[in-house]
Design brief:
279 residues, Rossmann fold, ten-stranded mixed beta sheet, 10 strands
């Protein structure tokens, strides 16, 4: 985890996003780059009342946008300095050159391919940001894992790691991505929810695999008992004292999860601990 990307938006949980990224950077001595994702041009009717966005409105929005961009850059740079992110081997900079992209730009997905992980905020019910667009661009387009920051700012991450194991290819791949976290953890626990599993190895077999890689892990097998599988995974993990969850994303399709619900959707909406996720 030597290179960390923060695609950040104006949101209530921006402090948590940055704190999560800093915890990763300090744990691994990482280079950090920030990308400010600009909000969309508001769909507001002009004064003529016919729903036309006038040149005067656009000019006003662009002036305000420049001010937001400068504020975002200042915030990013001051946060990195305040939290001692330094020692980068990239052009002698302690953190990356700040850049900004529009809300529909593919930059996050493309740029993220050059980083070990992207840190994003958990989408908040009823809030416009953080957006699912940014999270999904990082999750599906980078080919790399993401770290989802919860609403509350974490102070520790990776001491106790829970693997939400469901037998799937997606979670097996995520475990491989997360090996550097697992190697440094003081406690690793494999959590399996009976009703949430697909055909594949058991939690005990995953623990044995980790032992082959010199990672000691315990196993918790539990039942959902009427809970959403994601709720069961979160609750069982937090009962183990986890400060980080490892979870493969969308074992079932996104459409199916949108219609019927699913573990990934529940976790994206409700987690109160950081989640390391890949697809």
């Amino acid at each position: 985890m030597k290179a960390v990307l923060i695609p950040f938006e104006e949101s209530e949980i921006i402090e948590s996003v940055f704190a999560s990224a800093v915890l990763v950077a300090k744990r691994f001595g990482s280079y950090v780059e920030g990308v400010y994702v600009q909000p969309a041009l508001p769909a507001i009717a002009s004064a003529d009342g016919f729903g036309v966005v006038t040149p005067a409105f656009v000019e006003k929005y662009e002036r305000e946008d420049k001010a937001r961009i400068q504020q975002a850059q200042d915030f990013f740079e001051s946060y990195m300095q305040k939290n001692g992110i330094s020692g980068s081997r990239v052009d002698g900079q302690p953190y990356g050159l700040w850049q900004n992209v529009g809300p529909t730009d593919d930059y996050v997905g493309h740029r993220g391919r050059l980083f070990d992980i992207s840190v994003v905020g958990r989408p908040m019910p009823g809030a416009t940001t953080p957006t699912m667009h940014t999270l999904e661009a990082a999750l599906f387009e980078t080919g790399r894992p993401i770290l989802i920051a919860p609403p509350s700012t974490p102070t520790v991450m990776g001491e106790t790691v829970a693997i939400a194991w469901n037998g799937s290819t997606e979670t097996a791949r995520t475990i491989a991505f997360a090996k550097s976290f697992l190697e440094r953890a003081k406690k690793v626990v494999v959590v399996s929810i009976e009703e949430a599993s697909v055909p594949g190895p058991s939690g005990t077999e995953i623990a044995r695999y980790l032992e082959h890689n010199d990672i000691e892990a315990s196993v918790v097998d539990a039942k959902a008992n009427g809970r959403n599988p994601g709720q069961a995974m979160l609750e069982e993990s937090m009962d183990q004292g986890a400060d980080l969850m490892i979870k493969g994303a969308y074992t079932n399709s996104r459409l199916r999860q949108m219609i019927f619900g699913g573990a990934t959707n529940y976790i994206l909406s409700n987690t109160e601990i950081p989640v390391f996720m890949s697809h």
